[in-house]
Amino acid sequence: MTARIGVITFPGSLDDVDALRAARTIGAESVPLWHADADLHGVDAVIVPGGFSYGDYLRAGAIAAQAPVMRSVIDAARGGLPVLGICNGFQVLCEAGLLPGALMRNAGLTFRCRDQYLTVERTSTVWSSRYVEGEQILIPLKHAEGRYVASDRDLDALEAECRVLFRYSAGPGAGDATAGDGASSRARGDVGRGVARSRSAPPDGAEREPRDETAAARDLANPNGSLRDIAGVCSADGRIAGLMPHPEHAIDALTGPGTDGLGMFRSLADALGLRPPTPAATAASTPSAASATTSTAGAR
Amino acid sequence: MVAPPCAPILPLDEQEQAVARVAVDVVIKTEILDPQGKAILAALDRAGHVGIRSVRAGKHFDLEVDDSVTDEELEKLAESVLANPVIETWTVTRVPDGLAPSGDATGIGVGSGTDAGASR
Fold this sequence. Notes:
The complex is a heterodimer.
Chain A: E1 4-9, H1 16-25, E2 29-34, E3 45-48, H2 68-78, E4 83-86, H3 88-95, E5 102-104, E6 112-120, E7 136-143, E8 147-149, H4 152-160, E9 164-169, H5 182-185, H6 195-200, H7 213-221, E10 230-234, E11 240-243, H8 262-271, H9 279-285, H10 287-291, H11 295-299
Parallel strand pairs in A: 1-2, 1-3, 3-4, 4-11
Antiparallel strand pairs in A: 5-8, 6-7, 6-9, 9-10, 10-11
Chain B: H1 12-17, E1 19-28, H2 35-46, E2 58-66, H3 71-82, E3 88-95
Antiparallel strand pairs in B: 1-2, 1-3
């Protein structure tokens, strides 16, 4: 059977094309949805992509949450339609009330752009069944407003209901922050001012103030000051999910840090009963996707 | 004296009543970290302003609304759109006639205190 995956384009969306491509990678038909069109065109799932919808005016995602298409998405999501919000899409889902909490300016005030390890916290969802609980996956992130915030009471409720989907992590071997082993250094630092570089900078005599190791380790494990290191959350039934990092940028080793993001889309394919794409179709899209058929186990 | 050809001339009091001014101020909740406010505080310190203990950055909205818009409606729009109750508090203030809009240089004293009135 085939499935149709819709990806919304708002004015200011950036990563809709990558999300559409991710949908095709798992053998689904990708369906562009337009913010001003309330018709969901019979799609089986919706991805709200990254970008800066409506210029992030008012608050990130706030105006997009009022768009005609979102009224339909909210209704359909409450009826069980799988919905994934990535980055700005996560902000939109929070503003629309589909997911709890809010995303605020990064604690360090800087735009973060790097490959980031995440710990998979829950696998019994439409979007994460292909992962193993506790698995470390490497996914790019790029945002200035990704600090996840909610009241302590809401955070406790989220944890109790197993609704934390991903947490930021320093990666494999993180217990030894100074080791600088191969696995940890896979996570590249911020463009132009990498964590890895600042860690290897001479501690004395450097022009820059040397960063203390604890701060560097903390930064590695949490890029934006999110409460409880939360990178992504989901609804209780695991059908609505949102995260700040970009799994759609990690589906092809040619352009991303690996293929760890594929697991999210393959999980959806499983939930929708999609058969794996034929070798011919896979080869046509990307050479690396074929080798990543074993997905998450191979990516560890 | 001949009236202008278009635009019916309303009695003065009707013109005055057509629009009301409303100020909505939105501030991040005190328990939530405001890195922008911290950066501004550091800049004030560098600029030589002593004695400034804390800065919290927020947003101010000037609205012009029909007289028919009720306080309840204003409260609702502030809660559902202008502010996000998860992270922000807000105040809705009707600006008395004759006072300048708060965007003007003389705007001090137009609104209420940050946590007064309708904030929660």
